[in-house]
Every structure is written in structure tokens, then in C-alpha cells.
Amino acid sequence: MQTETFTKALADQTRLRLLVLLVDTPELCVCEFIQALKLSQPKVSRHLAILRTAGILQDRRAGQWIYYRLHQQLPDWCKTALQALRDGSQSEAVFQLDQERLASAERLNTSCNNIA
Known about the structure:
By secondary structure, this protein is of the alpha+beta class.
């Protein structure tokens, strides 16, 4: 992973928000990102594709659903940077709301099948 590739991929608030949600979560479905960020599916998918192309995320398909997680071969320095960004974002309202909406969706046991 080149530093420039990594930092360019992070140079957007939507992508930062997506990554912060994944730091402590093994994987999330596109529909969970949509619920947490309150953004449209095309916008979320476009930003996830940028992160996947950069080698930061990897995906898997389960039926019609696509799940994303941090890439298994992401260098330790990238993981450390993402954890620091997560820690630093804790006091910002937009990141707090994302975490709350994701937790709320999980508490409600909302599945991807109920989103479409």
C-alpha cells in the first residue's frame, strides 16, 4: 500500500465515515452503511468501490447482498492510522450519529432483506 494511495482514498468525508464504522466491526453490508450514514445506495456503493479499488477494503457477495471489511492484507500502519482516525472522530457529531444509527439498526435486528 502506497501512502499516497491510502491518503487519497481517505480524502473524502463519506469514505472516512465508512472506514470509521469498519474499524471495530468485522464486516458490514451495503444496506447497513446506508442506514448508518443516511445516504443513497449509489453514493455509498461508489465510495465503497473507491476504497476497494485502493486496496483498503475487500468484499464478498452473499446472494444479492455485498459485505465489506477491511482488507486482510492491509498493512499495520494503515490499520493504526484508521484506529487513530476512529479515536479522533469520536467527538464529532456526524461520526457519533453514524455509530448510533448503526447500533440502533443492530438492536432492531434489521436485516438486509428488510431494507430493499
